[in-house]
Amino acid sequence: MIDLGLEKMIVIGAVALIVIGPEKMPRVARTVGTLLGKAQRYVNDVKAEVNRSMELEELRKMKETVESAARDVESSVSSAAADFEKQWQDAASTAPPLPDLAPAYPEYRHPKKKWRVKQGAVPHWYKARAGVRTRALSGAARVAKYRPRKSN
């Protein structure tokens, strides 16, 4: 870039003050400042775009290497699986057949107990004396039964 030092800037400012005049100098300085700002933003945008394109190219290369590695792993796994299947088939065809083993435990049979009849065998007077409930209460009946009485 142009190497502008402090001395050169002072000389340029003095020449501009003489040529342009003190009345128009602030407006010209503002215009020059805005133009320089726009130029800097444009240069920064171009730099950012170049950096993005370089990063995209690097990412594409990385993607290609990862995809090729994945293809290599997939082919090695599929070949290993095919080898295993072949060995399994060979081993299964040469092995003697297994004898049919009977279960070591007897088959489950329901006991056919009649638990309702068994419960009903206890006499009603015995249940009442022992405090066993013989009837279920609904929620409303239970609330009514155990609600504290109002004392007036």
TrEMBL record:
MF terms in GO: protein transmembrane transporter activity
UniProtKB keywords: Cell inner membrane, Cell membrane, Membrane, Protein transport, Translocation, Transmembrane, Transmembrane helix, Transport
Annotated Gene3D superfamilies: 1.20.5.3310
Subcellular location(s) of the protein: Cell membrane; Membrane
Keyword Transmembrane assigned: yes
GO biological process: protein transport by the Tat complex
Record-given protein name: Sec-independent protein translocase protein TatB
Membrane topology: Single-pass membrane protein
Cell inner membrane among keywords: yes
Family: Belongs to the TatB family.
Function summary: Part of the twin-arginine translocation (Tat) system that transports large folded proteins containing a characteristic twin-arginine motif in their signal peptide across membranes. Together with TatC, TatB is part of a receptor directly interacting with Tat signal peptides. TatB may form an oligomeric binding site that transiently accommodates folded Tat precursor proteins before their translocation.
GO CC, alphabetical: TAT protein transport complex
Subunit details: The Tat system comprises two distinct complexes: a TatABC complex, containing multiple copies of TatA, TatB and TatC subunits, and a separate TatA complex, containing only TatA subunits. Substrates initially bind to the TatABC complex, which probably triggers association of the separate TatA complex to form the active translocon.
Cited HAMAP family: TatB
Predominant location: membrane
NCBIfam families (alphabetical): tatB
